[in-house]
Structures are given as C-alpha cells and as structure tokens.
C-alpha cells in the first residue's frame, strides 16, 4: 500500500504541476530520470510470461549505475534491457501500471496506460488481514479507503471534503458509524481532518502547509453505537500537494570567490547554491541561476557566466584581458538570481551577491629604479650604507611582489650583506666586516633582485633586475694596533723592583700617513708596572707576588694604550699577561688553630689537625708537623702522621678542664724548606654521654661518633 500511495502521489503531482516538464527536460542537455514519462500498451485478453510489453527510456545522467526499478503491479518487472516484462501469464493487469526508477542521481516515476483492460479488483480489509478463508462472514461487508490528496494553502470556506471511505456491503446497518483516528484527527495536531460518521466522507478543517507536514497517516474504522469495532481499522494516507509558495533562499547574502589572473576561459571560480523548501519532485523546487548584474562592467559586462542548473560561475573573458594589473579593479560583484519553476516566468526568485577577487600571479619581474647606485662609508664602520629601490607591478600582499636581493659579484671577502626591508621592499645594503681604506678604497658590487614566488613560464628576469653599486671608502685616523694582543710573558715572583718584563709592539694602520706612537698604562690593578712612553718597554715598580688577590690562576693582567699624533689623535689598547712562577716564600700554618679533646684520657682524646701553605707545588706538602722543643711536652701530647697534609694530636693522660697552648713546628717541602713555629690552642673539655662541656666556651653538642669517623677517613687517605 505504501508503494501504491507513492505512485499515486507522484502521478497526481505530475498531472497538477508538471504539465510542461517533459518539454523543458528535452531542451536541457541531460535531465535525470525517465526521458518518456507516459507509455501506452494495448490489452488483448492478457499478457504472456517473459514477453516484453515495452522498453522504458531512463537516464540518470551518470550511466545508470546502481539504478533500480519498482513496478506497482507485483506480476511485472523491469529487466536489464529496461523492458517491462510479466513474471507470469497475467490476465488481471488493471488499466494503469506505475514504474518507479531510483539511483544515486535520479528519483523519477513513469506511467503505463493499458488500453482496453478492466480495472483491478479493489483491495479489501479482509484481504489485507488474510481472513478471506478463516472468517467467511466478513466477505459480506468490506471497508475500502483509497489515498486522498489535498493541495496546501487552500482558502476558506472550511471544512472541505477531500474524499470518501466506502463500505462495500449489501446490508450496512444504520447503527454502524465511521470513525477517524491518528495524528491530524484525534492526535496532535488535532482536528485537521474529520469524518462524517454516517457517510464516511473525510474533510479538512483548515489550510495545510506541505513544508510543515507533507503526509498524514490516519486510520478509518466502523463501529456500532456502543463503540464496538465492526470493520477496520484501515490505513488512510493523506498527501499534501505542493504549491509554489517558497522562494529560493541562499544560505548567505554574500559569497566570496577568487580566480587567478590569466586563467583560461571556462575556469570555475565558485559555485552558488540556493535551496527551495518546496517539493523536490516538482518544478516548484527546480532552480535555475542567472547573473542579473556585474559591477563594474568593464572591460566587458559579461566577464563571467553561471551554469543555470549547477550554479557554477566560470570565466568568459579571455586570459589576456583577465590581467590584474590592467583591470579597473581587482574585485567584481555579481548579483545572482535563483528562480524556481525551472526558471519559467511564473517562478519565484531569490538573490545573493558574489564577490570575485582577481588574484595575482607573478607575471611582472621586479626592476631596479636605477641601474647604478653610489654610497660612501667610513673605514672601520659597519651598518647600512645604501637602500636600493625597485618597482614591481604585482600585488604587494603576495610573494609575487616581495623582493629577494643577492650580491652576485664584487664581494670576495663577504664584507657586505643585503636584506629586504619588509615595509617598502627596498634592498638594505650593509657593511658587516669593517672596510680598510689602506687596502681598498673602492668596491664595485653587482646586485640581483628576484621575487619570493617564481615567475610564470612566459616571463623572465631582464637586465633591469640587476644593478651596480659603487662603494667609496673614506679614510679615518685609526688607532694603533698592538701585536700580539694579548702579549704573554713568564716571570718569577719577587723579582727585584725595576726588572724588565716585556716590550710592547704597536703599529699604526694608517701607513700612508707618517705618525708617531706613545705608550701609557691604562689599567694596572696592583700598581706593579710602568712603561716607557716612546720605546714601550715595561718594567716592575713593585714586587710581583703570585699570592696577591690580583693574580688569578697564576696570571696577572694589565692593559696598555698606544696613541698616535693624528688629528684627532686615535688610541688603541693591548693587554699584557704575566704568568708568575712560584717561589717558596710562604711558611705553612696549622688548621684549625683551635681544637678540643676530653679531659679523661679514656674518652675521645684525639684531635685531627692539618697544615696549609699559600704556595703551590712543589713548595707545599708533604708537611712535617712536630711538637715544639718545650721540655716534658712529649709526656702529655703525642703527634702521629695521618697523610701528607694531616696529623693527629693525642692526649696521653687526663688533664683538668682548661685551655692549653701546645707549641708546634710545621715545615713544608720547598727548596729551601720553610718552617713555622706556632701554637695550637687545645680546649680540654668534660665529656659525658656524648656531650662535651668546655669551660669558657659556648654550649656545644658534639657527636663523638662523627669525630671518630672523621679520624678513620683521614687514616684511609
């Protein structure tokens, strides 16, 4: 029943709104669907199995791939050759057969009229339910409800009759009434349809909108006065027939597209698509597109064309005229109109604006504004010396305009660099290595300019894409130059005051001028040096001490300056680094100078001491640490060697808690060795339960275990 309803709807709609559709379709290049909508077959008592009746003409404009067909009569099919063929011998064909063709690209209906045939028997409720054999009495009365069709947007008066339900019966009882149920009757939206209880006539109560609801599925039944079901329910399908009451609508009011200048005629720029809410199976929603207006109209009012069916906007203007640099503007506005009813005069319209931008391609090479540029620069300086200017007719916002400069000749030492100024596209030529007037007074450079984007194939870089730059170097009075810089010498510390250290060497790079040089001390942190202003000889003015805080890693640095007599005078600086060799001029000393032991010899009575020396090897360790020559000292204290730098002092018997000064003699290993007679302050403290109490000292908590571990670690050295 569902397929039959669809067939009836398609047929009725075709008869109402598609009278001229076939003629218009034939005029088009390809209209998807049946190319012939209606066929005729003579009925001569019936149709034989597998004998073709006719051949339908169907084209979905895509080679009919995946197309399928449905036939309203179950005993007929469409074969591979598009022939309408009976499945069996058919006597009851009816007067009309509908064929539905469907593919990804087409959805269409055709009608076959069978001339001379009798109508098929109506479908009755008992047949639908399959009760013909099991409930014989129901054959006396049957409910028949054909599909009904209602145009949308009907005007008053309402209600309007749309059709009638029938009871095929010879004895319809007077107490039996019709009942209508479903959405649109007793369900939301309620009251759209009603039924005459006695006659079965169905009426619509108000205007319908197909775009809101295109199909109503109702049910009709008959009951007695008590509400007991007599017949049904049987489906009643009500189809809303479309009217052309919706204009085509573009999703946006303005659309944007681009096309490259010089594009071939027929280049697709963009696609305009409008939508129509009317029935897509009717001409009410078949759209055609036109360009109503182009602005500006030069160089031609018809620079673009729009495909009336697909909405594709393509170029019509020749590639030579589609030149961004010669067109009056780079943007064109098109007013696009979409009209339904396949573009007929009665169709409704919708409009939108298409803005098309002519984009740039690199069809113009950059050209220098001058073939020769000149600049001057002081020797010894760096920075930009000249800006090179170019002209380029391409779009400044693209790589077809942006310039890339390169030095192709005249710079063997890479003394120059050139970069593009992003603001104005000029080439900024800079000196990156200071130039020397005495070496070269003039430089001649050959500069080339190109674009970031490659040129189109038919355009080449010409002579104007290169330029010559003359650079004149200006002489500047340069300061004297020390050689070598730094100057490194080695001296023994403690040499006599006035000793010779070094001779400074400085030359004036302005050798074309005759100038004298004078030397002076610029920075001498310790004040140890002097220099002869004419000869550059450096001597000591104080003792050189390797252990001075001004000496770092055995090196002492001083800075000298040399000044010429030019106008104005120029100064250069140089560094003298003196490496100082060590002398054994520092005796060792004890660390720490104060240590602690327990008063009870049974407790921790050992302390670790070490020796230090400001000198460096071999004038330092191994150190010899001994007790002084005080009589009886060895009976109270004992010193034992741990390693080259440390020894331990041990209390041999208990002493009272007090501070004791123990004389020590420390000797280094220098040549000759130096000895230091000094004293070690030993605090004898009271020790109880890992606590050490020393008189006259701050309260101090000492962990005896840590002291023992320290002693053991030193013994392992």
From TrEMBL:
GO biological process: adherens junction organization; calcium-dependent cell-cell adhesion via plasma membrane cell adhesion molecules; cell migration involved in gastrulation; cell morphogenesis; cell-cell adhesion mediated by cadherin; cell-cell junction assembly; convergent extension involved in gastrulation; ectoderm development
Signal peptide: 1-21
Pfam families: Cadherin, Cadherin_pro
GO cellular component: adherens junction; catenin complex; cytoplasm; side of membrane
Domain Cadherin: 178-250, 251-368, 369-482, 483-590, 589-700
GO MF terms held by the record: beta-catenin binding; cadherin binding; calcium ion binding
CDD domains, per database record: Cadherin_repeat (cd11304)
Keywords tagged on the record: Calcium, Cell adhesion, Cell membrane, Cleavage on pair of basic residues, Cytoplasm, Glycoprotein, GPI-anchor, Lipoprotein, Membrane, Metal-binding, Repeat, Signal
Protein topology in the membrane: Lipid-anchor; GPI-anchor
Chief location category: membrane
Cellular location(s): Cell membrane; Cytoplasm
Record-linked SUPFAM superfamilies: Cadherin-like
Domain of life: Eukaryota
Function: Cadherins are calcium-dependent cell adhesion proteins. They preferentially interact with themselves in a homophilic manner in connecting cells; cadherins may thus contribute to the sorting of heterogeneous cell types. May act as a negative regulator of neural cell growth.
Subunit composition and interactions: By contrast to classical cadherins, homodimerization in trans is not mediated by cadherin EC1 domain strand-swapping, but instead through a homophilic adhesive interface which joins two elongated EC1-EC2 domains through a region near their Ca2+-binding sites to form a tetrahedral, X-like shape.
Record's protein name: Cadherin-13
Natural source organism: Pygocentrus nattereri
């Amino acid at each position: 029943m569902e397929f039959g309803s669809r067939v009836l709807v398609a047929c009725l709609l075709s008869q109402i709104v598609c009278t001229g559709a076939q003629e218009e379709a034939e005029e088009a290049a390809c209209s998807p669907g049946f190319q012939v909508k209606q066929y005729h077959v003579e009925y001569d008592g019936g149709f034989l199995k597998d004998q073709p009746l006719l051949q339908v003409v169907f084209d979905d404009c895509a080679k009919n791939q995946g197309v399928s067909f449905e036939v309203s009569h179950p005993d007929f099919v469409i074969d591979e050759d598009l022939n309408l063929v009976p499945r069996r011998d058919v006597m009851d064909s009816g007067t009309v057969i509908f064929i539905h063709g469907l593919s990804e690209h087409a959805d269409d209906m055709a009608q076959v009229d069978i001339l001379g045939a009798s109508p098929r028997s109506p479908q009755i409720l008992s047949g639908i339910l399959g009760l013909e054999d099991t409930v014989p009495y129901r054959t006396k009365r049957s409910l028949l409800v054909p599909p009904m069709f209602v145009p949308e947007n009907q005007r008053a008066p309402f209600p309007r009759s749309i059709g009638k339900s029938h009871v095929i019966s010879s004895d319809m009882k007077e107490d039996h009434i019709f009942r209508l149920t479903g959405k649109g009757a007793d369900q939301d939206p309620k009251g759209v349809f009603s039924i005459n209880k006695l006659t079965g006539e169905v009426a619509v109560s108000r205007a319908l909108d197909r775009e809101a609801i295109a199909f109503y599925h109702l049910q009709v039944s008959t009951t007695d006065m008590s509400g007991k079901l007599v017949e049904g329910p049987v489906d009643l399908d009500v189809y809303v027939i479309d009217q052309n009451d919706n204009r085509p609508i573009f999703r946006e009011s303005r659309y944007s597209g681009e096309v490259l200048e010089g594009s071939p005629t027929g280049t697709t720029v963009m696609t305009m698509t409008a939508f129509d809410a009317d029935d897509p199976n009717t001409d009410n929603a078949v759209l055609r597109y036109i360009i109503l207006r182009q602005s500006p109209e030069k160089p031609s009012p018809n620079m673009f064309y729009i495909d009336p069916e697909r909405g594709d906007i393509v170029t019509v203007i020749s590639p030579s005229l589609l030149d961004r640099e010669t067109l009056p503007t780079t943007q064109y506005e098109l007013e696009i109109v979409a009209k339904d009813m396949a573009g007929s005069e009665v169709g409704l319209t919708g409009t939108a604006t298409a803005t098309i931008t002519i984009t740039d391609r690199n069809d113009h090479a950059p050209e220098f504004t001058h073939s020769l540029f000149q600049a001057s620069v002081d020797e010894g300086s760096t920075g930009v010396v000249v800006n090179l200017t170019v002209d380029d007719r391409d779009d400044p916002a693209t790589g077809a305009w942006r310039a890339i400069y390169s030095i192709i000749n005249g710079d063997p030492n890479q003394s120059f660099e050139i970069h593009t100024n992003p603001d104005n596209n000029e080439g900024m030529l800079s000196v990156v290595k200071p130039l020397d007037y005495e070496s070269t007074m003039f430089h001649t450079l050959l500069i080339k300019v190109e674009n970031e984007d490659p040129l189109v194939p038919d355009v080449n870089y010409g002579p104007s894409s290169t330029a010559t730059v003359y650079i004149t170097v200006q002489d500047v009075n340069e300061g004297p130059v020390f050689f070598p810089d730094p100057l490194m010498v080695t001296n023994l510390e403690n040499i006599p005051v006035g000793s010779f250290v070094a001779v400074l060497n400085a030359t004036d790079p302005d050798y074309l001028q005759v100038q004298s040089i004078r030397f002076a001390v610029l920075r001498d942190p310790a004040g140890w040096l002097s220099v002869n202003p004419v000869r550059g000889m450096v001597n000591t003015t104080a003792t050189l001490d390797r252990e001075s805080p001004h000496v770092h890693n055995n090196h002492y640095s001083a800075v000298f300056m040399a000044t010429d007599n030019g106008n104005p005078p120029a100064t250069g600086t140089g560094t003298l680094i003196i490496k100082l060799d060590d002398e054994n001029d520092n005796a060792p000393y004890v660390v720490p100078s104060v240590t602690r032991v327990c008063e009870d010899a049974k407790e921790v009575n050992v302390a670790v001491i070490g020796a230090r020396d400001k000198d460096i090897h071999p004038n330092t360790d191994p150190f010899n640490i001994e007790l002084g020559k005080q009589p009886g000292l060895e009976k109270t204290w004992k010193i034992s060697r741990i390693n080259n730098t440390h020894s331990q002092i041990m209390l041999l018997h208990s002493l009272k808690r007090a501070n004791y000064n123990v004389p020590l003699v420390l000797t280094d290993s220098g040549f000759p060795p130096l000895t230091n007679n000094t004293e070690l302050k030993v605090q004898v403290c009271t020790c109880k339960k890992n606590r050490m109490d020393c008189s006259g000292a701050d309260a101090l908590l000492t962990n005896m275990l840590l002291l023992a571990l320290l002693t053991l670690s030193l013994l392992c050295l």
